Amino acid sequence: MRLAEASEGRDNNLNLLRFVAAFAVLVSHAWPLASGRGTMEPLEGLIGHSLGAVAVTVFFVASGFLITGSWVRRPQVADFVAARVLRLFPALLVVLLATVVILGPWLTDLSPRAYVADPLTWTYLPRNLSLALLQYDLPGVFRTAPYPEAINGSLWTLFHEAACYALVLALGVAGWITGRMGAVFAAYAVFYLGGAAVGFDGRLGLFHGLSLPFVLGMAGWVWRDRIVLIWPVGLALLALALVSRDMPWAAEMLVLALAYWTALLAYRPGGMLRRWNRMGDYSYGIYIWAFPVQQVVVHAFGPMTPLANIALSAGPVLILAVLSWHLVERPALAARPRLVARLRATEASPIR
User: Fold this and answer.
1) How do the residues of the chain divide into helix, strand and coil, expressed in percent and rounded to 5?
2) In what residue span(s) does the Acyltransferase domain sit (predicted)?
């Protein structure tokens, strides 16, 4: 089965795969949140990468594949921007509002007046909605936690996700996705290898790492007619990734293996697994709600093991994710035609 054939239509396991990846991030964060900053989880000691890093790689591979396909199927700027904005921001706005208006006043060790008067209370919402100027703390909240003063440490990836969306949009508007992707991938290879040699720091360094799975997802879409989905190839790539652990290219080999397994698990298993898609896509809600809920659990119950943190957090996070999908995310996505119409009207209106 080739990837092009397997990925036709919406009958796949992507919602289930992303659901598992989102819960994997929750599991990964339980170690530092329950035991303190810098605590290593078991998988990191085994393969040199945390379970959360593996899960984020899966997210970016799937996103690169789906977002590229979205542009090719509907190459309109207004449609593309509306879809991305409505997917990211309504649910994010709700969790940020709940954090600053409900969790903050409840959990702060300051007086209500001092909490409201603190400038950090007022900058939390706009800075985090910007994606680029993240603020992780609120005044007086989680100051004595094992992982102190971090309300929602998962939000850092959203900037890089949006940057990758912008990359697809720029390439699409330029007409290169369907015509010059070979040259684009060659240019990216120069950027990636150059970055690996120089050692990018800060935000550029993070983008350097996260862009690779996204670009591999893009390549999967562009060359989907040539990619065969068979289990022996997946096992071979996984074995190569494991034996390459101490090699200079270990990280890249692991990302390649994860990219192939993302496609394999998304499109090969069938049967009852395919019914999961009927339930909805709860992965984003899990991802943006898990960190604050896990911090609240530690605050409420005191010192605990990572496994206890997982057990106590999983249920509330799942409930919040289900509510987020049915009450916020799905209605927001349903409003896409209206937003597209407004964007097109704005484009068509004369400048006065």
Assistant:
1) 75, 0, 25
2) 12-324
